[in-house]
TrEMBL record:
Keyword Iron-sulfur: yes
Aminotransferase class V domain span: 3-356
Gene Ontology terms, MF aspect: cysteine desulfurase activity; iron-sulfur cluster binding; metal ion binding; transaminase activity
Cofactor dependence: pyridoxal 5'-phosphate
Family according to the record: Belongs to the class-V pyridoxal-phosphate-dependent aminotransferase family. NifS/IscS subfamily.
Pfam families assigned: Aminotran_5
Record-given protein name: cysteine desulfurase
Cross-referenced PANTHER family: CYSTEINE DESULFURASE (PTHR11601:SF34), CYSTEINE DESULFURYLASE FAMILY MEMBER (PTHR11601)
The enzyme's E.C. designation: 2.8.1.7
Coiled coil: none
Amino acid sequence: MTIYLDHNATTPVDKRVADEIMHHFLEEYGNAGSRTHEHGQNAARVVNQARATIAATLDARDDEVIFTSGATEADNIALLGLGPEGQRTGRRHIVSTAIEHKAVLEPLQRLADSGFEVELIRLGVSGRVAAEDVLAAVRADTLLVSVMAANNETGVIQPLEQISEGLGGHDAYLHVDAAQTYGKKNEPLRDHRVDLISLSAHKVFGPKGVGALIARRRGYRRPPLTPLTVGGGQERGLRPGTLPVPLIAGFALAAELADKEHPERLAACQAYRDEVLAGLAPLSPLVHGDQDYCLPHVLNISLPGLDSEAVMVAWRGLIEVSNGSACTSASYEPSHVLAAMDVPEEQILGALRLSWSHLTPPADWADAVARVRALV
Ligand code: PLP
C-alpha cells in the first residue's frame, strides 16, 4: 500500500463528512435562496447553522463568515477587494511576506500593477518572518498587512500574535491566509485584531471547492471590501452565486470535528513526526525551517546530493510526497519559499515535503532508506 504523505496539498474527506454531503446532495437538495417552499427554507437553515459553527470556531459573528470556493477565492476577495478603498483614501502601501502562497502573491502583484506599493518582507533560514521586520515596514499610509498563519511548504508557523499586538490601533487591515492552520491551530485566529481570514475545507478533511473569508467588523464597521463579481447578491453581495449547500454543510462538520478532536489529532501527528524523523535519520536529511515553530504534521527536507525528482521516483509505490506546493509542482520552478529563506539552490532542487495526518498508517522507512541508498 502506498502511504499518502501529501496532506498539505489536500486531505481525504472524513467519512462522516462525506455522509453529510451526500445527504444534502440527494435528500435535502434545496436552494438556500428559495424562500417559497420547505426545501429552500431547510437549505437556508443548513447554511445558517454552518455559518454559526464556523464562526464559533474563530470567535467570530455569524454574519462575518462569507462562504467562498476555497482559500484562493477568499484571498482574492480580501486583497483585491480592498483595492478601491486604498485608491479612494490614498493608502496604497501594503506589507506582506516573500513566502506567501501564490493565491496571495498574485493578487498583490495585481495591486502593485495598479499603483500600490507592495513590500514583501524577506526572512532567513528559520522560515519565520520577524514580527519586528513586518511592524517596522508599516507606515501611516499602510492599508493592509497580509501574513500567512503557517507556510504550506515548510509548515513554519508565523508570529501572528506579535504582529497583531504590534499593529494595535493602527488602521491597517490585517489579513491572514490560514489555509494550512484552520482546524489545526485556531487560537491565533480568534484574536479580534485579525480582520480578514482565508479558510479552506479540503485541508481539514472537508470537501474541495469550498472555504470561507472571515471579514471581522471593527465595532459596527465592516472591512470596506468591494466585490469582485456581481450577480444574485448572496453572501451580502461579496460572493454572489448559488451557495453549494452540501459542501458548506460538509465544511462545517469538518470544522466542528477538527475542533472537537484537536488534542488527539495533534498527539497522533506529533508521534508520527518522531517516526518519520527516526526513519529518515540514516539518510541525514537537511531539515528546512525552524523546527521549534513547525506544524507537527509537516516536514520539509532535502537529502544531500539528491534531486527531489529522483527520490520521488525511487519512492513510487511506497510513499507519496511533494517537492513543493501542489500548485507550483506542475511547473518546475524552484520553490520561491525556500529561495526567500536563502536555502542554497541545490538544496532547493532536492526539497521534499512530507505531510501526514492523525490517520496516516505507518510507512516502511527501512525500504524508503534502502531505495534512496540504491540511487547513490
Ligand atoms: N493558501 C495556502 C497557504 C495554501 O496552502 C493553499 C492550498 O494549497 C491555498 C491558499 C489555496 O487554497 P484552496 O485550494 O482552498 O483555494
